[in-house]
Fold these 2 entries.
Entry 1:
Amino acid sequence: MRILAVSDVESKYYYEFYSSGKLKGFDLILACGDLKPAYLEFLVTMAGCPLYYVHGNHDEGYPREPEGCVCIDDKLVVFRGVRIMGLGGSYRYRPGEYMYTERQMRRRIRRLGFSLWRRRGIDILVTHAPAKGLNDLDDLPHRGFACFLRLLEKHEPRYFIHGHIHREYDISVPQKDTYGKTVVINACGHCVIEY
């Protein structure tokens, strides 16, 4: 399965410099937040495949949800046998619709406990924020969630895809990394994944 992961920054390659057929061949698009609805609608229309997304910390006040796209915030969905769990939002650094404390994020994960048990885990974890200490930054707005680490350790998904950490914030933050058996991908901009 060929997956396009996008987050935070509209990819000029797939948008401004788009040419016919450039988005063909993808089976799924995963969007990790902070992208305009019009951009997501463009991607899903031109790719002709499903687009699942979670909200980022700057997605509050969306004028509307993107048409043709499926929000997987606080859900565990199955696509072609691949179990995908979505948890949008960032660490709370100010009042906001998609900002959470560590405790609130743990509670969101607990609410998915039955789905995790029923589906026997997950294959892909899609979030906006990174995990604490795993390619996050020291400042409060870009801190990751410790509960994501426990989720990775317990369920060992094949991929953990997040956004939020722009490469220009710290060039030393890799786009791809590993944590145990999980490949960690910072989808800021775009990244192609062969699942």
Note: Residues 2-194 form a domain with the Purple Acid Phosphatase; chain A, domain 2 fold (CATH 3.60.21.10).
Entry 2:
Amino acid sequence: MVKKLIILISLLVLIISSCVPVNRHEIRLNGEIRDRYYINCYFDEVEKVLKGYQQITYYNKEEEILENIYFHLYPNAFQEKNTAPFLPDELTQAYPLGFDPGFIEVHNVDVDGRVYSWGYQDAAKNVLKISLDKPLQPGQALTIDMNYTLKFPLCHGRFGYGENTLRAANWYPVAAVFDDKGWNLDPYYPIGDPFYSDISDYHVRITLPDEYTVASTGQVRRAGKIGKGYREWMAEGKGVRDFAWIASKSYKVKKKKVKGTEIKSYFFDETGGEKALETAARAVEIFSELFGDYPYRTYSVAASDFFIGGMEYPNLVFIDKELYNKGGLFSLEYVVAHETAHQWWYGVVGNNEIAEAWLDEGLTEYSTVLYYYERYGPETGERILNSVIEKPYYSFRDSRQNNDTVILEDLKEYGSWQEYSSLVYAGGALIIDWLRKQLGDELFFRGLRKYYDTYKFQNATTGDFIEIMQDVAEKPIENEVMQRLKGDR
């Protein structure tokens, strides 16, 4: 029975793949060329297996000739218990019924319709390497086709399934970033958000049992039925950094229109679902006024089997369903506001979250404080700054030998979530607060808006951020900021 089903799925994927159009036209956003992903996938609920076909129009956006192209295969971090992207004391929460493996297996890779030499960069199969027989020149493009099988683990992390939801995050082969340091091939670290990607366009078709409701990056709609008991969902995300989706048979949905954007709340608990919608809508209004307009037509907040609290993806965030009960509504509001701020700092303005995690998390955490300032007044904002940012940071700093508090650090250097949270989130937010006090509100917010406008749909660096704020301030601040980032202040 299972074998027959797998054969039928394979045939369906083959049929779907033959119908995908190839568009070699250069797509530009703010003058930047974007890669384009077409993905078609079919989910077998019994085996918790997804069969996928993917076509990528990949552009060499650099000034260097590329002889190889690399793709991250993040699901393979879930193959073994000792490689799963969780700390040892998190395994029970991540795997409530015991460890369950997940993986992605790539079956074939074609480039411009021809079979190419490809393989894995390491034994764990975390990175796929395509060796080009003809180097890709700057400005040139090629088309890459892949077929793969994805196994979802019973896991309450970003990728997996639980009692209520199926979560597809960091799930498909995604092109690694090539920048001035070369290819970025970092593994799936257990602390932080170990992801770094370029803006692309996505056209995705997902076939699931008919009972499921899907929330996703981009604009998603329920399409026609495919066979008995199955339905296709179609999603299009233009100019987004990643593509994620989540599905449930039990979702209730509420919607609200804000500044031309449809805000959706996917939930199980009515009280929490309304609170999540209200918070997301208000946060989009506040951040649009403070930083610049939200450039997408949809934004969804989805309750999830997710022990980590909250996680951001373009146009979509996962929120721990346990936060939706009446006793946790303050936490729900804080987490939803924080993840909504990530739609600006990560979603639109990206950065290397492995090497410079503070740049999005520090800005996002301080933006969450600004949400409380704007919504509830300065007194509430100051109280949040003191209790959620200052106290945890200084308490952690005082507990460190020699007050070692390096904020600008690579993810692999952090030994615990407490260290990461205290330094990157709280410490980073305090640097932003210091900048605000140095510049005054008029120049500070002018700088944030200029940073957002200059680097939207791109990847920025710490140097880029400091340069913008220094230009606005019209005085040298770089040395002071760098000293604080290196823990010298």
Note: The chain has three domains: 2-243, 252-342, 358-485.
